[in-house]
Automatic annotation (TrEMBL):
Residues that bear N6-(pyridoxal phosphate)lysine: 314
Organism: Cephalotus follicularis
Protein name: Pyridoxal_deC domain-containing protein
Family under the similarity heading: Belongs to the group II decarboxylase family.
Cofactors, names only: pyridoxal 5'-phosphate
Length: 497
């Protein structure tokens, strides 16, 4: 019988992973990736394709038979790459950079290699324990108090993004208060942020069931440098308490998304602690700078808050996605999010001797992401990570100097990290509507060249351009070239008028 003869019908056995085949294809893929990084500057940084461009280029359905990797790679080059906005381009100055490194890439390969689904300790003790070690290492680097570390009374966990860090802490805070006041009072819970708090906070609040009218967005003003005023917070909280509502949670930001404003943690914690409000610090971008002693003061007062999140995928070379969350009181997280179904139970689950990270996050399965951070921390060491931050800050200062040297432009917000907010304003005193139109046109002109990608924001009604330095491959010459391009755009626009 054919089916009993091991040589008769190879094709009937599906082999999705063959180590030797993997070695061959892996070499090709690594070559492709290294080539991409090498020639990335040649692509337009902001893609020029139109919506729906890809559907017309690809077949209607998946192939019936297998296709070789060479063919697939060719299609990636011809069809996929042209539709990419190149976040790793040295000419990418939009949003905040998403920084990367060889070390993190190798860590990611390992993470993928093991494909561990480490929901609890036993599901891969190394995955849980390395994450605990790395979170303590990073906490040490940031000089966080022991109360946030496993070596103290707290602990850290890697979430996917800030949104989840906000969501899980919000739910922990919520359940803790509902335990006291009863679930009937859900609609009395009030949460606070400034109008500069990241928009994902509102989303997290809605997911957590906070009544939308109870989400306070306190206006930041230009005199506080776009940070949240503790006096205003006190007024708003006081009014809520007087109205019989229950203050629950404050999201303070170290490095806001629009302008990198820093909320004053100590003074805000004074107010919050008085009312028993859970304080979370969102330091998604700015937090990474705090590994340098000269920036650490932005976290002053951190000992007074309940939780802190920071996304190394933004500014600590780590690839998406990696949001580090530290909490002072892990038991509140576990109480709110813990599950203990029979099919996941082992003799150690639920015991105090192990951490089951599934109880610290939204999902059950989780990747072995700490490998990435571990490789970054070990491969570069603290000194190189600090000089990475400093070099970005230096380039931003340089850009700020260039803007200041041209009287047609003005700086719009204090630049603390590696973001410069500015605008073209050649005829001081002309209407703000005119200035806004001018800057919108300038941005469109710059981005349509494909040579630089920048974005904008509106703060307190004022439209401004954002120049975020820090893409991993950016060097001084790219910053200079970008500035020349911006000036050329201004020349073209102003000559046109
Ligand atoms: C970028 C950013 C976020 C969103 O962060 P992710 O971790 O990338 O989801 C949240 N808050 C601030 C202040 C940010 O700058």
């Amino acid at each position: 019988m054919g089916s009993l003869d091991p040589n008769s019908d190879h094709s009937s056995q599906f082999k999705p992973l063959d180590p030797e085949e993997f070695r061959k294809q892996g070499h090709q893929m690594v070559d492709f990736i290294a080539d991409y990084y090498q020639k990335i500057e040649k692509y337009p940084v902001l893609t020029q394709v139109e919506p729906g461009y890809l559907r017309t280029r690809l077949p209607e359905s998946a192939p019936y038979g297998p296709e070789p990797i060479e063919t697939i790679l060719k299609d990636i080059e011809n069809d996929i790459v042209p539709g990419m906005t190149h976040w790793l381009s040295p000419n990418f100055f939009a949003f905040f950079p998403a920084t990367v490194s060889t070390a993190a890439f190798l860590g990611e390969m390992l993470c993928t290699c093991f494909n561990s689904v480490g929901f609890n300790w036993l599901a891969s003790p190394a995955a849980t324990e390395l994450e605990m070690v790395v979170m303590d290492w990073l906490a040490n680097l940031l000089k966080l108090p022991k109360t946030f570390m496993f070596s103290g009374s707290g602990g850290g966990v890697i979430q996917n993004t800030t949104s989840e860090s906000l969501l899980v802490t919000l739910i922990a805070a919520r359940d803790h208060v509902l335990d006291r006041i009863g679930t009937d009072n859900m609609c009395k819970l009030v949460v606070y942020g400034s109008d500069q708090t990241h928009s994902t906070f509102t989303k997290a609040c809605k997911i957590a069931g906070i009544c939308p009218p109870n989400i306070r967005s306190i206006p930041a003003t230009i005199d506080t440098g776009f940070s949240l005023s503790p006096a205003l917070l006190r007024k708003v909280v006081g009014a809520d308490v007087a109205a019989g509502l229950v203050p629950l949670y404050l999201c303070a930001t170290v490095g806001t998304t629009s302008t990198t404003a820093v909320d004053p943690l100590t003074a805000l914690a004074d107010v919050a602690n008085e009312y028993g409000i859970w304080v979370h610090v969102d330091a998604a971008y700015g937090g990474s700078a705090c590994i340098c002693p000269e920036f650490r003061h932005y976290l002053n007062g951190i000992e007074r808050v309940n939780s802190l999140s920071l996304s190394p995928h933004k500014w600590l070379l780590s690839y998406l996605d990696c949001s580090c969350l530290w909490v002072k009181n892990p038991s509140r997280l576990v109480k709110a999010l813990g599950t203990n179904p029979e099919y996941l139970r082992s003799k150690l689950s639920g015991s105090d001797s192990v951490v089951d990270y599934k109880d610290w996050q939204v999902g059950t399965g989780r990747r072995f992401k700490s490998l990435r951070l571990w490789l970054v921390l070990r491969s570069y060491g603290v000194t190189n990570l600090q000089s990475h931050i400093r070099s970005d800050v230096r380039m931003a200062k340089m850009f700020e100097g260039l803007v200041k040297s041209d009287p047609r432009f003005e700086i719009m917000a204090p630049s603390r990290f590696a973001l410069v907010c500015f605008r073209l304003n050649p005829y001081l005193g002309s209407g703000s509507c005119y200035t806004e139109t001018l800057n919108r046109k300038l941005l469109e002109w710059i981005n349509s060249t494909g040579r630089v990608y920048m974005t904008h924001t509106v703060v307190c009604g004022v439209y401004m351009l954002r120049f975020a330095v820090g893409a991993t491959l950016t060097e001084e010459r790219h910053v200079f070239a970008a500035w020349k391009l911006i000036q050329a755009g201004a020349d073209a626009l102003l000559n046109d008028i």
